[in-house]
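From the methods appendix. Each design record in this collection lists the tokenized structure first, followed by the designed amino acid sequence. Records were kept in a plain field format so they could be parsed without special tools. The example shown here is representative of the layout used throughout.

RECORD:
FOLD TOKENS (168 positions):
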């Protein structure tokens, strides 16, 4: 007599289901890490492009002042041409979930760190003749910007003498 009532799973079926689930969870976790780190990449790239554009514009006919500030849980960049507020443009560079810290240096003094999520960062400009980063009225100049989400950190560096902007 054959048994016709087969209830339950065999060990092979259970292992196959677990293997499929493990692969799906791995793919989901990898995709999630790519998505969450993409915000850091995009923010760092926007900062780099903004600084490079300001430097290039400064080498031309116009002076450019940059201001980074928090508003409504996001971080914005305001770019002003020739000190004229009517020529100011504003763009969003990052979400408030990101940590965006500006590092300022001064010869013979301690470095100053400003968090763009809590305080406005102003006084970023480039020299018209050489393209070098200018010091603000206190003698500090922008050295780098660190963008982080807790898992990934990118540093946007500015060379003092040339104004060259790179992402590390």
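DESIGN:
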């Amino acid at each position: 007599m054959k048994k016709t009532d087969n209830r339950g799973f065999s060990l092979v079926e259970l292992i196959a289901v677990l293997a499929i689930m493990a692969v799906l969870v791995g793919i989901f976790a990898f995709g999630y890490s790519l998505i969450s780190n993409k915000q850091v990449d995009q923010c760092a790239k926007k900062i780099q492009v903004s600084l490079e554009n300001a430097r290039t514009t400064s080498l031309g006919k116009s002076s450019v002042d940059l201001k980074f500030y928090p508003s409504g849980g996001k971080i914005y960049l305001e770019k002003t041409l020739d000190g004229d507020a009517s020529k100011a443009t504003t763009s969003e560079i990052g979400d408030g979930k990101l940590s965006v810290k500006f590092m300022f240096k001064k010869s013979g003094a301690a470095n100053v760190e400003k968090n763009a999520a809590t305080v406005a960062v102003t006084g970023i400009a480039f020299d018209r003749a050489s393209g070098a980063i200018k010091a603000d009225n206190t003698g500090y100049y922008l050295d780098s910007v660190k963008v982080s989400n807790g898992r990934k950190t990118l540093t946007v560096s500015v060379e003092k003498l040339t104004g060259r902007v790179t992402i590390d």
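APPENDIX NOTE: The first strand starts at residue 64 and ends at 71.
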